[in-house]
């Protein structure tokens, strides 16, 4: 789906491979399929080649793609806040189409700088990130109208009766430490959370579908389901509540959380019993720099290799990566076949193609 003037800026060393993989992906498309492009953890810096973004532009200009999803860590760490802000602006300026959807990753706020000693002055706060990276989506997606800077939202594809829900797993309160206010009490680099506002928005708004034929899919940075996950680090505050809401939707039952208080306090009460069994296509995530398919209560949790061109340290089976070669990028063309209940993932760059059973 190309919405702006497009110019092919694909590096010559990638062009043949990209065309081959697009041709392969098109073979999986049909009347009962829906395709989108997906990648995660590009860790863009001011020195990046942007070959991945140019490839995403090319795919969207040469295929029937409904949207592109990036599961966070859009940015790596900037030396200064201004460099970080400028890099975010540069990234968005290079995207040639409207339906580029991303989520907040733990590197995206730049709070890693100074290891928490005086990181307030380096941090891209939510208002700034929303204005640079998300506000452009105002008339395309549905944000939480009471908390737009929460940066969670959904996008509907009515012709397929699919709702893509983009969750913010770094939805934390930015509270300055006393007494000098130079550092954050919690920083996005190391603290992962789903806020009470986001949990209730999911339960009462995002999962309120037009009818029982609609299906949902989820995208986030940090998977709230850590069991068996390669590369798992810190747990997600309220991650279990998030999972319980999704499970209750899928099973068509009531759910009442055990209310908590404090900076990550939450209370959720929702009843899906009148809606019947909910249909979940899959849950896509990033963060771990590892390709893995997990199953929880019949739902597939899917992550692919990191896009940033460095070999993953979290998984010994990760493919080698090198700038200036076809392994520089790691992108995916995802085709959901509703009749076969399968997801076909065609790799563009590093890694091997996947077929995932979602029945």
What's a quick, concise take on this entry?
With 359 residues, the protein is of the alpha/beta class. The protein has helices at residues 12-26, 51-62, 81-93, 126-134, 196-206, 239-251; strands at 33-39, 68-70, 100-102, 142-143, 153-157, 162-166, 192-193, 215-219, 236-237, 254-256, 269-271, 279-285, 292-296, 299-303, 330-337, 342-349, 354-357. The chain has one domain (12-357): Metallo-dependent phosphatases (Purple Acid Phosphatase, chain A, domain 2, 4-Layer Sandwich), CATH 3.60.21.10.
Would you mind describing this structure in some detail?
With 359 residues, the protein is α/β, with parallel strands linked by helices. The protein has a single domain, classed as Metallo-dependent phosphatases (Purple Acid Phosphatase, chain A, domain 2, 4-Layer Sandwich), CATH 3.60.21.10. It has helices at residues 12-26, 51-62, 81-93, 126-134, 196-206, 239-251, and strands at residues 33-39, 68-70, 100-102, 142-143, 153-157, 162-166, 192-193, 215-219, 236-237, 254-256, 269-271, 279-285, 292-296, 299-303, 330-337, 342-349, 354-357. The strands form four sheets. A seven-stranded mixed β-sheet has the order 4-5-6-8-12-14-13, with no helix packed on it. Strands 3-2-1-15-16-17 form a six-stranded mixed β-sheet, with helices on one face. Strand 15 (330-337) and strand 16 form a beta hairpin. Helix 3 (81-93) packs parallel to helix 4 (126-134). It is globular and about 55 Å long. The mean pLDDT is 95. InterPro entries: Calcineurin-like_PHP (IPR004843), Metallo-depent_PP-like (IPR029052). This is KID repeat family protein. Pfam families: Metallophos (PF00149). One of its GO terms (molecular function) is hydrolase activity. Residues 35-289 form the Calcineurin-like phosphoesterase domain.
């Amino acid at each position: 789906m190309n919405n702006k003037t497009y110019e092919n800026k694909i590096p010559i060393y990638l062009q043949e491979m990209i065309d081959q993989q697009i041709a392969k992906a098109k073979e999986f498309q049909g009347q009962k399929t829906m395709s989108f492009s997906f990648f995660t953890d590009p860790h863009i810096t001011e020195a990046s080649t942007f070959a991945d973004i140019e490839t995403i532009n090319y795919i969207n200009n040469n295929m029937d793609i409904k949207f592109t999803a990036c599961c966070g860590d859009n940015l790596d760490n900037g030396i200064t806040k201004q460099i970080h802000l400028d890099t975010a602006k540069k990234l968005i300026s290079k995207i040639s189409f409207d339906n580029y959807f991303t989520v907040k990753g733990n590197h995206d706020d730049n709070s890693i700088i100074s290891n928490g000693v005086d990181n307030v002055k380096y941090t891209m706060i939510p208002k700034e990130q929303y204005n640079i990276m998300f506000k452009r989506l105002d008339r395309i997606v549905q944000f939480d109208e009471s908390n737009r800077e929460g940066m969670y939202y959904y996008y509907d594809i009515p012709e397929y009766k699919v709702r893509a829900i983009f969750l913010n797993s770094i939805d934390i309160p930015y509270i300055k430490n006393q007494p000098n206010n130079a550092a954050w009490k919690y920083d996005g680099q190391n603290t992962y959370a789903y806020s009470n506002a986001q949990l209730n928005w999911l339960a009462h708004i995002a999962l309120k579908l037009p009818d029982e034929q609609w299906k949902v899919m989820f995208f986030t940075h940090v998977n709230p389901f850590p069991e068996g996950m390669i590369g798992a680090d810190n747990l997600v505050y309220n991650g279990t509540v998030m999972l319980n809401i999704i499970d209750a939707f899928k099973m068509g039952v009531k759910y009442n959380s055990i209310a908590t208080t404090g900076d990550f306090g939450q209370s959720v009460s929702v009843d899906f019993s009148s809606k019947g069994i909910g249909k979940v296509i899959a849950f896509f995530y990033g963060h771990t720099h590892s390709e893995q398919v997990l199953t929880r209560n019949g739902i597939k949790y899917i992550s692919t290799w990191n896009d940033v061109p460095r070999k993953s340290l979290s998984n010994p089976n990760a493919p080698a990566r090198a700038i200036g070669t076809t392994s520089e990028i790691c992108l995916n063309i995802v085709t959901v076949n509703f009749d076969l209940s399968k997801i076909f993932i065609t790799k563009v760059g590093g890694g091997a193609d996947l077929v995932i059973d979602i029945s």
